[in-house]
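Review form for a predicted model. The reviewer records the input and the model, then writes brief findings.
Reviewer: anonymous (R2)
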Amino acid sequence: TGVQTCALPISQQVPQLSSAQLQGLRADQVVGLGSGVIPVLMSTQVSALTTEAIRSFSSTQIGSFTSAQLPRLSPSQVAAIESGDVRALSSTQLSVLGSGQLWALSTEQITAFSSAQTIGLGSQSIGALSTAQLVSLRWGSSTQLQMITTAQINQLPGEAIDGGIKSYTSTQVMALASTSISTLGTVALQALTSSQMVALTSTQVGAFTPQAMGGLSSSQLVAIESSDMRAIGADDIAALTSSQVQSLTVRSEEHTSELQSH
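Model under review:
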């Protein structure tokens, strides 16, 4: 019974259970295993836990798995953790999960991550996530946003890029495809810093829509490299307001000459 299971002498009897015995435990017996029992399970025993057993664990039990045990869980075992119980895993515990285990996490499990858990994910973990998983994360740290790989950044939907574009490094900004640039919202484009504007390539500058050009500040216009100004289309130039053109400083005279060449 559940009571009998809970009464097992931890240090002596639990490690003696065979894989077959562990697989035979009913849900009520699994619940009876105290959180103090989980850390003493051997690697082979952890691997032998059924998905039903994992699903029956409480958040306290899930949180009691050690960093040495978690890598022994199969992707299917990781996927069996209840979404509400995922929050019991610390950043340290999440950091030891392999790419296969991370890929097994459902969007529901990812969505359940707390901001602290998301922030605690390292660059290797973030790099292993799928597009759907990335979108489901709660981005709360500029440092974390900078961990997104250049290969992943163009897989994100426009609204996800919009939300954190100001935190992106110049390398990430340069990695944005022209299709991603063209779908960015006005607010996101206005958030681009001068250093990010300088990092834009001519192809990216050419992807700006007339609406986007009309929403840029004078400091952003000045920051565009003169060689990249040639990529701006006639429609984009026509979208510039008189105040935008007039606000161009002496420092941007070469930008103005590029505009006039159109």
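Findings: Residues 46 and 245 are 67 Å apart (CA to CA).
Further findings: The chain has a mean pLDDT of 80.
Recommendation: see findings above.
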